[in-house]
Design brief:
Layout lengths: L3 E3 L6 E2 L1 E8 L21 H22 L3 E8 L2 E12 L2 E4 L6 E2 L4 H14 L9 H4 L8 H6 L2 H5 L11 H5 L5 H7 L17 H15 L3 H10 L11 H6 L6 E4 L5 E3 L1 E3 L5 H4 L2 E2 L1 H12 L3 E2 L2 E2 L3 H6 L5 E4 L10 E3 L4 E3 L6
Parallel strand pairs: 1-10, 3-4
Antiparallel strand pairs: 2-8, 4-5, 5-6, 7-11, 8-9, 12-13, 14-15, 15-16
Helix pairs in contact: 2-8, 2-9
């Protein structure tokens, strides 16, 4: 596989998509200080088996409609991986097939993995979701002293910090600035909105909160992830380091979709400055371990890897992201801590 490398930001999509579906069987118990957790929709083993029997056809139909060359899909039910399949090829024009071990770049799905890691740090007592980021991360400041002294990890992870949308994205992609310099230059941006009043998606802002939590834990972000999350879950191929993805033999290449609907090989983008927001690479088999942790409320194979209270906090709405003009047209969209969420027709 031949990959091209670029710091320029381009419209890209993964040539093959790693997907993990979850079917919760029972309620996760929550501590008194955490938001209430409700039962998932009741579902029987027979219903699960019937759904799984249709899954191959649904995936193949979706790939035929979209032209996506490859995918890897798994389903977790009752703390067990009940489905794991790979489809198609890793690169357009190349016969190498996708397998469950094929490594994908996860892009913004990295955010929910990153909030899981910060929840672990919070559970360890090293910091809190409401800690001020500037108190933890050397070199970080915003354009106003009051603003700097108020912005918390919670604000940055929920995109309600007041920073402009996509603030700082071009510092790495266009100008090639590294992590520390990109973080430092955020102080030159005026606020777009008052703090905690509106949603504006900011990759570098979320990453600042992640780096601040890593500082509180006394480690670099990448090493913290290996030691505190990926290692305990047995996620041996999962990494925030671009070099690890590049060095994999069995990996899916990035692609982009042209105006005529064709998929073409794209560039590998160096987004190391905002790695917590989009830098994870993994395979679907590793990803099922993380899903089991989520469904287990922080417990994995009998051991508490992440304390339940800070983990459940990641999936509590923090800010309204958007809503239809007419509420009858559909549910409002909320953002938690690295998670996008909405309510279904039953209010769940």
């Amino acid at each position: 596989m031949t990959l091209r490398y670029s710091r320029r930001r381009t419209l890209q999509a993964a040539m093959a998509t790693a997907v993990v579906a979850t079917i919760p069987r029972s309620t996760i118990s929550a501590q008194q200080a955490t938001p209430a957790v409700v039962d998932g929709a009741a579902i029987s083993d027979d219903q699960v088996e019937a759904a799984l029997a249709r899954l191959d056809g649904l995936i193949e139909d979706a790939m035929a409609r979209t032209g996506v060359p490859g995918a890897a899909v798994a389903v977790v039910y009752d703390d067990t991986v009940v489905y794991e399949r790979a489809f198609g090829v890793r690169e357009v024009g190349n016969p190498d097939t996708v397998t469950p071990e094929t490594v994908f770049q996860l892009a913004s799905m990295s955010k929910s993995i990153s909030s899981t890691l910060v929840a672990a740090v919070v559970g360890d007592g090293a910091t809190t979701w409401d800690a001020v980021a500037a108190d933890l991360l050397p070199g970080f400041a915003l354009s106003d002293p009051w603003w700097t002294a108020q912005v918390t990890l919670r604000d940055l992870f929920s995109h309600r910090s007041g920073l402009p949308a996509y603030a700082g994205d071009g510092l790495t992609a266009t100008f090639g600035y590294g992590r520390e310099e990109s973080v430092h230059r955020l102080r030159h941006l005026p606020p777009a909105t008052p703090l905690r009043t509106s949603f504006a998606y900011t990759n570098l802002g979320l990453s600042v909160a992640a780096y601040a939590a890593a500082e509180a834990a006394g480690q670099r972000w990448e090493e913290l992830a290996d030691e505190r999350l990926f290692g305990p879950l047995g996620m041996a191929t999962t990494s925030y380091r671009l070099a690890d993805y590049v060095g994999r033999t069995n990996k899916a290449a990035p692609h982009y979709r042209t105006r005529d609907g064709a998929w073409e090989l794209g560039d590998v983008t160096d987004g190391a400055a905002a790695a917590p927001a989009g830098g994870v690479s993994t395979n679907v088999r590793d990803l099922t371990q993380w899903v089991r942790l989520q469904l287990g409320g922080g417990v994995f194979e009998g051991d508490e890897v992440v304390a339940s209270a800070p983990l459940l906090e990641t999936r509590r709405p923090q800010i309204l992201e958007g809503s239809p003009p007419n509420p009858a047209d559909g549910p409002a969209l909320f953002y938690g801590l690295g998670w996008r969420m909405h309510y279904d027709e039953r209010g769940r």
